[in-house]
């Protein structure tokens, strides 16, 4: 297989970020997470961050034109030319079409879309217990994946906090937005034959093993 262009897909809290951390070290691929990029812009007070913040705080999607431009520029960078892991993009059919157009213009395509399937009640459980470090956004869960010392990141020693959009009323909104605006993207990629489903209710290591098996199968299929 020449290049691995992966999309990690699924509802909020499905474990996309958790799996991405493992996959990026498995395959040495750049990890492009639109949520992290937006939070970086908010933190830096850029014009994009100022525009995006109100949507994010409400649990709404940031308008397509802003996201498509931001993700498109990132995908044009040198390190993304031999493969990438996308997380949180595309999230609407319009974004999926824009991505497909950008890649096809340079003879590239998405290798697979990995849908991490998790029911709504599990999403609520996971997001209410999620803690992230202020320095680099490393993820923990108070019950399923606690840090060694309370409220301190194992990896860089920074403080752990709850994300503003992990508050219960915002989580409910994010789930509604996912079902209404993002789920149609599942159908879009299923029709193209590149969607692969993974049971996200299993533990992080089992989910990781499953994803690796899916990628190994894709590589075998390409070699046949
Ligand atoms: P974004 O940051 O992309 O958030 P999200 O998609 O809602 O996903 P999360 O980061 O909340 O969850 P995750 O699936 O990565 O789960 P995680 O691994 O952390 O987007 C935020 C906002 O930005 C959006 O609402 C929107 O406003 C805007 N935005 C971003 N992209 C956009 C776009 N393309 N278009 C428009 N707007 C956009 O895991 C969650 C928790 O569960 C953790 O605590 C973890 O430790 C735990 N956990 C993980 N896996 C397991 C497991 N297998 N078992 C038990 N616990 C687990």
Question: What is this entry, summarized?
Answer:
The protein has 224 residues and is of the alpha/beta class. Helices cover 50% and strands 15% of the residues.
Q: What features would you describe in this structure?
A:
- This protein has a domain at 4-30 and 77-119 and 175-223: Rossmann fold (3-Layer(aba) Sandwich).
- It has 8 helices and 8 strands.
- The protein has helices at 16-27, 34-44, 47-58, 64-75, 93-104, 120-129, 168-191, 204-223, and strands at 4-9, 31-33, 83-87, 112-117, 130-133, 139-141, 160-161, 195-199.
- The strands form 2 sheets. It has a 5-stranded parallel β-sheet with strand order 2-3-1-4-8, with helices on both faces. Strands 6-5-7 form a 3-stranded antiparallel β-sheet.
- Strand 5 (130-133) and strand 6 form a beta hairpin.
- Helix 2 crosses helix 3, helix 4 (64-75) runs parallel beside helix 5 (93-104) and helix 6 (120-129) packs across helix 7 (168-191).
- The model has no long low-confidence stretch (mean pLDDT 95).
- The structure holds BIS(adenosine)-5'-pentaphosphate.
- Residues 10, 12-18, 34-35, 38, 55-56, 59-62, 67, 88-89, 91, 95, 126, 129-130, 139-141, 144-145, 165, 174, 203-204, 207 line the site of BIS(adenosine)-5'-pentaphosphate.
Helix content, binned percent: 40-55%
Radius of gyration: 17 Å
Count of alpha and pi helical runs: 8
Low confidence ranges: none
- Small molecules held by this entry: BIS(adenosine)-5'-pentaphosphate
Query: CATH architecture of the domain at 4-30 and 77-119 and 175-223, please?
Result: 3-Layer(aba) Sandwich
């Amino acid at each position: 297989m020449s290049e691995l262009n992966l999309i990690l897909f699924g509802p909020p809290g499905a474990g996309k970020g958790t799996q991405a951390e493992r996959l990026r070290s498995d395959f040495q691929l750049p990890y492009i997470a639109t949520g992290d990029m937006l939070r970086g812009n908010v933190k830096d007070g850029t014009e994009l961050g100022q525009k995006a913040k109100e949507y994010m705080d409400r649990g709404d999607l940031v308008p397509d034109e802003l996201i498509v431009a931001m993700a498109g520029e990132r995908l044009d960078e040198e390190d993304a030319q031999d493969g990438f892991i996308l997380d949180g993009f595309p999230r609407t059919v319009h974004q999926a079409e824009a991505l497909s157009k950008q890649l096809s213009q340079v003879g590239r395509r998405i290798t697979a879309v990995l849908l991490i399937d998790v029911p709504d009640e599990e999403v609520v459980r996971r997001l209410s217990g999620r803690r992230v470090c202020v320095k680099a956004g490393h993820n923990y869960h108070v019950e399923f994946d606690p840090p060694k010392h309370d409220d301190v990141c194992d990896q860089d020693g920074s403080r752990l906090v709850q994300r503003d959009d992990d508050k219960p009323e915002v989580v409910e909104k994010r789930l509604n937005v996912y079902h209404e605006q993002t789920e149609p993207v599942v159908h879009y990629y299923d029709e193209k034959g590149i969607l692969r489903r993974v049971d996200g209710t299993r533990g992080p290591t089992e989910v990781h093993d499953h994803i690796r098996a899916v990628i190994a199968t894709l590589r075998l299929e390409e070699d046949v």
